[in-house]
């Protein structure tokens, strides 16, 4: 079995990939509303992976769920900035499980545009950096 530090770095790497995909989509040559939805969806994925990494770091059970609020609470993070909590609620609205296509018809998908996608990407990047420092604090 891999050492815990290696496992955490793998989670961070995969979260970074989602962050990178968001940036690339935002800069695509012909973006449209769905491009911006995908930017935000990948932001959700990046934060989800970072919370799961944090749960592993804190010796918590790895939950195979997608609810960012539940993952945040379950991860046992101390001193997580309050300013990010409301953002997690907003970002949760952009996750629709592909396993359950009927869920996408129960309520309208949140609207998105370039400004919202840019803002969500910026906040996601801030949370990513905060959780990376939390996992690997400088001594």
Order of H and E elements: HHHHH
Name of the CATH architecture:
Up-down Bundle
Low-confidence stretches: none
What would the CATH topology be?
Four Helix Bundle (Hemerythrin (Met), subunit A)
Q: What is the CATH homology-level superfamily?
A: Nucleotidyltransferases  domain 2
Treating each run of at least 4 consecutive H or I residues as one helix, how many helices? 5
Shape descriptor reads: globular
Beta-strand portion reads under 5%
What separation lies between the terminal Cα atoms? 27 Å
CATH class: Mainly Alpha
pLDDT averaged residue by residue: 91
Radius of gyration: 15 Å
Return the domain count.
1
Structural class category: mainly alpha
Total strand segments: 0
Verbal overview:
With 139 residues, this protein is mostly helical. Helices cover 62% and strands 0% of the residues. The chain has one domain (4-135): Up-down Bundle (Four Helix Bundle (Hemerythrin (Met), subunit A)), CATH 1.20.120.330. The chain has five helices and no strands. Helix 1 packs antiparallel against helix 2 and helix 2 (33-57) runs parallel beside helix 3 (68-75). The protein is globular.
Give a quick rundown of the structure.
This protein is mainly α. It has five helices and no strands.
């Amino acid at each position: 079995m891999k050492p815990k530090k290696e496992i955490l770095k793998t989670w961070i790497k995969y979260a970074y990939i989602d962050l990178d995909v968001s940036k690339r989509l935002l800069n695509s040559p012909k973006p449209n509303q769905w491009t911006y939805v995908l930017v935000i969806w990948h932001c959700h994925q990046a934060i989800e992976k970072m919370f799961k990494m944090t749960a592993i770091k804190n010796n918590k059970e790895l939950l195979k769920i997608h609810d960012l609020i539940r993952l945040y609470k379950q991860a046992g993070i101390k001193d997580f900035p309050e300013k990010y909590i409301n953002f997690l609620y907003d970002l949760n609205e952009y996750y629709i499980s592909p396993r359950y296509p009927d869920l996408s018809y129960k309520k309208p998908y949140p609207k998105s545009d370039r400004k919202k996608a840019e803002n969500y990407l910026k906040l996601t990047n801030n949370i990513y950096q905060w959780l990376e420092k939390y996992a690997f604090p400088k001594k």
